[in-house]
Amino acid sequence: MDGTGRREITRQAKTLRPSFDSTVAVKPAGSHPQNKQSLNYVLRTGLAGGLAGCAAKTIVGPLDRVKILFQASNPQFAKYTGSWFGVVTAMRDINRQSGIRGLFRGHSATLLRIFPYAAIKFLAYEQFRAILIPSKQYETPLRRLFSGAFAGVTSVFFTYPLEVVRVRLAFETKEVGRSSLRGICSQIYHEQPPRVAHSGTVAGAVPAAPRSGLINFYRGFSSTLAGMLPYAGMSFLTHDTAGDWLRLPALAPYTLTENPKNPSAPPILRYWAELLAGGFAGLVSQTASYPFEVVRRRMQVGGAVGDGHRLGMAETAGKVWAERGWRGFFVGLGIGYFKVVPMAAVSFYVYERGKVVLGV
N vs C: which end of the chain shows fewer Cβ within 10 Å? Predict the structure, then answer.
């Protein structure tokens, strides 16, 4: 970039300098603000978000498989937990037993879930931002946090059953008689808690709670919501805040570049700066929400291990504490960082570049 280009970007950055009272986190693609409630805008942001989610999940597919096996205490892989060498060994054993396809076990269900999940999450964020932050004077960290949290809750509500199916597929390690997608769905639907004898009643009395059905696809949903609030909220807040820092006038000549689709639009972050902001967002959000994720995984595979007793969120957390203490809530956090940081970086990068390409 020549001196004139650097001076122009610095000038534009100064006009967009962020503060708690005045920040521009989502740049318009042209000289006139777009109608964010229009169907065209919603569809374009949804498409960009869905593609971003698929790209990010594909990058970290093998790590996701191993992390689920560790979190859910799969007996065959429990011996590998606790070290980076264990992660490599587990991946090597899976590759030896099942090949590359084994490392992506459940990935088709992942993509089936992640496209609508990411599409809803990103487009919902844009919509909640438009409601909670209608103008620059309302731009605050708290409103950003709530916008992200509400977007995360909205997306997970509509796609959670697919997540349960994906976890079950990834949890299986047997080669003979592996369950099909249809078989897993049928198994989850018909799972029933064990009959329990109650004092004063006949042994084996049927509990009042539903014993099977669609409710099984929402096993662990309460802990998911509890974890999604800090995860999605901190993810979007951290990404937007890091983006503001990288747009400061002192850094702008090195971090910003011209919008290739619309030179008259505000400059965009260079590829490495966008990846840096996204990766940092993944690091912070993963730390804030990881204990909830461990509890959720244990609840989701409750029908695949043990006696099938359906534990609540508090019971599951108590069981994790009894087994390993506070460290049990952070089992696999190292691999979680190794997975989430690049995943978040790629996700935000593809989303922001997708918006540029799609003109939003």
Answer: N
